Amino acid sequence: MSNSIFRKDGTAQGVAKQRLIESLAKPSKRIIYDPYAENFVLGAGIIKLMGHDFSVWLSKKFVPGFHEHLISRTRFIDDLIKKSISEQVEQYVILGAGYDSRAYNLELPSGLKIFEVDQPEVQEIKISKLPDEIPNAENITYVSVDFNHQSLKNQLLNSGFDKRKSTIYTLEGVSQYITREALNSTLTELALLTPNSNATFFMSYVSKLLREDPKACFGMGYLKPEKAAKFITNGAAKVGEPWISLYSSKEIEDLLSQNSFTLIENKTLADLNSKYFTPVGRTIPENHIFKIEHFVVAKSKV
Ligand SMILES: C[S@@+](CC[C@H](N)C(=O)[O-])C[C@H]1O[C@@H](n2cnc3c(N)ncnc32)[C@H](O)[C@@H]1O
If residue 58 lies in a helix (H) or strand (E), which one and from where to where? Predict the structure, then answer.
């Protein structure tokens, strides 16, 4: 990462850019809304001038379904957080938070403690770009951790994390950037952090099939899937954050199970199309389905 001209926030910006684009759609047409995304994206002014429809059209020219995939991931987690709140969750740990704005964008109860975990450089940039006044500020604690080299458990406990409280952890768009060992030790630490309390864990992972059989990661009839796969992986590598860890669904299920979690859901854009896009008249055709990355929800075995 460090030999990049980018400031370690290249991919975090990439995701925020898609959230900005979606937020420019008419309220009746959009599936997420993130008014903070524009603060983090270089060239946000140009994107705002281009508008939603043109930006999505342009994105389709390169990788059809990429925009829809990323915003469906955001929506899936937003919905999960809302559900967890209705079930009285007490702590929310955003692992590899990047420019995630849920802590101030969602309507969260005042008693919910939020921990945003990321590399210190990314957190510094994020804090410097946020408005002075943000909702929920008093409930947010920023915790610096490099998953590849540091103990998440110690950092969280030193920052006021309470082992007795029910907790939701999210690891969105991160597992591909960290080593397999780091993912395993992070999961082990999550289990140790919440040994006797309810814990929900969301993670996304990139399918191993991307290397073994790229065609399987896209809908039927998708034009040049190998080229799209290369475009996406090269894009991450170019901003200094290559995808180093890919998984099969069996590996993820086993990894979760070995660390006291039970897999509850494993979805891709293909599963969410009719739930999110059809109601706003934007059903994605099969030949534009992008399903490189999976969205997984697991519960602690207590
Ligand atoms: C693609 S961004 C996703 C950000 C955010 N979760 C989202 O979906 O908008 C990947 C994030 O993982 C973080 N990350 C990558 N490697 C990391 C590591 N070794 N330790 C901690 N955070 C890391 C990056 O700083 C970045 O914020």
Answer: helix 44-62
Q: Which protein residue has the closest C-alpha to ligand 1 atom 11? A: 96
Structural domain includes residue 3: no
Counted residue by residue, the chain has a size of 302
Do the domain assignments include residue 67? yes
Give the CATH number, domain containing residue 210. Answer: 3.40.50.150
What distance in Å separates the CA atoms of residue 243 and residue 203, rounded to the nearest whole number? 15
pLDDT above 70 for 220: yes
Could you tell me the pTM of the whole model? 0.96
Residue 1 inside a domain? The answer is: no
- Closest atom of ligand 1 to CA, residue 14: 1
Six token digits for residue 89 = 């969750």
Q: Is residue 219 a part of any domain in this protein?
A: yes
Q: Which range marks the domain in which residue 190 is found?
A: 10-300
CA of 205 to the centre of ligand 1 (A): 13
| 73-115 pLDDT tens trace | 999 999 999 999 999 999 999 999 999 999 999 999 999 999 9
